[in-house]
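Memo to structure team: turn this sequence into structure tokens by end of day. - J.P.
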Amino acid sequence: MKRILVCEDETSIREFVVINLKRSGYDVLEAGSGEEALALFDQEKGNVDIALLDIMLPGMDGFAVCRELRAKSDTIGIIMLTARTQEMEKVGGLMMGADDYVTKPFSPSELVARVDALHRRVTAARSREGVNYLEEITSGEFVLNLRSRTLKKGDRPIELTQVEFQIMEFFFTSPGKALSRTEILTRVWGEEYFGEEKIVDVNIRRLRMKIEDDPSEPQYILTVWGLGYKWAG
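Reply from structure team:
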């Protein structure tokens, strides 16, 4: 069963979201606060595929919940819900470890499409973890393990979200090639994704913070002006 945790304090919106997700075949857990959402996640022993989090929550806000969930699980998919249009709200959630965001008001078809796309990525990533092979890609001092979906820089492990891992896998299998934002978006988020390309830039920024010695002067993930990025590891 596809299991999703919905954290939204406005009852009418939560009911609207829950009904549409259930119609699409999801087993839905409901929470009206961040604290309740984290308690449910722990109660289910992490057996949750996706979390849908409103940013504006009473008490612990959606950013804090996102950060806590990401610390508990690298594999859970996280989508932020926000009524705000400010760029910093969208970027803030992604920098906390979210995979995507949906701005209110949204249509049921848009929400379900976003959730379905993320669920496919999460499921594909988890299914590969059980494959009995030790395929690695080495690039300079970096080693990307495709079975355990981990990255090491020398002896130092680097924690990656599913999205970050998929971007790194694309880079490692396309060394030195200039990859456009559209190519990265299609490869990682899927052809059916209809969000903004800005999500690529935010994830690149987050990756640079994790792997670069000086994120402001990147040596590995280079910007190709007017196009996108390339891996120079």
